[in-house]
Amino acid sequence: LSDRLTTVFSSLRTKGRLSEADINATAREIRVALLEADVALPVVKDFIARVKERARGAEVSQALNPAQQVVKIVNEELIEILGGETRELRLAKNPPTVIMLAGLQGAGKTTLAGKLARWLKQEGQTPMLVAADLQRPNAVQQLQVVGERAGVPVFAPEPGSGVGDPVDVARRSIEQARRAQHSIVVIDTAGRLGIDAEMMQQAIDIRDAVQPDDVLFVVDAMVGQDAVNTAQAFMDGVGFDGVVLTKLDGDARGGAALSVRHITGRPIMFASTGEKLEDFSVFHPDRMAGRILDMGDILTLIEQAERTFDEEQAEKMSAKFASGEDFTLEDFLEQMMMIRKLGPIGNLLGMMPGMGQVRDQISQIDDRDLDRIAAIIRSMTPQERSQPKIINGSRRARIAKGSGVTVGEVNSLVTRFFDAQKMMRQMAGGIPGMPGMPGGG
Ligand code: GDP
Ligand code: MG
To answer: Is the confidence metric ipTM above 0.95 for this complex?
Structure first.
């Protein structure tokens, strides 16, 4: 994707403001990125519409080109949607607080119960787990193992009491928690591989019996497009207050997060990132946004560019550009150092207004070359730097010796510089890209 976006960037680079065409071009790429991340199509459509709306009203940035600006808006919007209303668990005024887990079989509910218990304990709570999944033979035992690992008691039907009633177990667990003064009860429930009326009714019955303070919908981040249907069914059925995304350690890009958030309006509260109890954290919208967009490098660049290239510098630069004659080797060096400050050279060239003009001269330069170029320029006298025309053969020999490079390298630098200076003059002569500029070639 980064490659595709780079193409968009280069075609938009020199434009000064966010036009409809700029926005549309970038929006198309974002659309593909979201679909690749398995965000559901209707969600993508709504999201893109929202982004376009915001982009149209956006002020033009000095530091970013239009495509980058759109990406920035997309990222901000993603973070806002994913995290807009992050909230903590709702703690009951009269303990125990009751948390009920719901979701398909295999979503990660039982594992999550252990993780939650461990985490809650660290938060100073005294949790208890409840085995209200009596569907699968090993479900109770699985929860007991998890509870033991977390160091948290598990309430389960007495062994040998036959197949218990999950609603009854859940109800009795609350009484037990009150007696034993547990501050929080986490109820693990049964799921089916697909949505199923009987399973949903059981969840509803448990809910009605225990009146949970929070129902958490547990969803596997790998399910992709299907997350929408599942989330909708649970929303319409048992209903839920928050979402937990599991299996984020997999390679799924996590479009399910955006889909579920968008479709249900419920906040994503926790993230599960592995099979071990400690693979768990509160949900971080910014990380998720980055993962869905999969433009980590570009987002980093945007951040850095904004930090480094403040308005003052932009003004100083454009003043320089406006009087092409003044562009000296000193400026050339300064420019290159500024680009270096931003990060790996290849990624950054041309990202700032005006910088694109010297891109071709320095695009082949890697970091080591940059050091040599800096050394060459520093071996020049101030007069040579400000009036490079005077750098004749004997001066070149002296500079080469002083900086420990060959005369050929000095020659090549001087040539590059004159090319860059020529472009600066062209820029000063008119709007970039306009025909009829003086000195055009
Ligand atoms: P439940 O049916 O909803 O109770 O799901 P389980 O908690 O039994 O989890 C189903 C499977 O997924 C088990 O093998 C878990 O070890 C695994 N699992 C659960 N959460 C995660 C996670 O965050 N990452 C990974 N890699 N595996 C997980
Ligand atoms: Mg389970």
So the answer is: yes
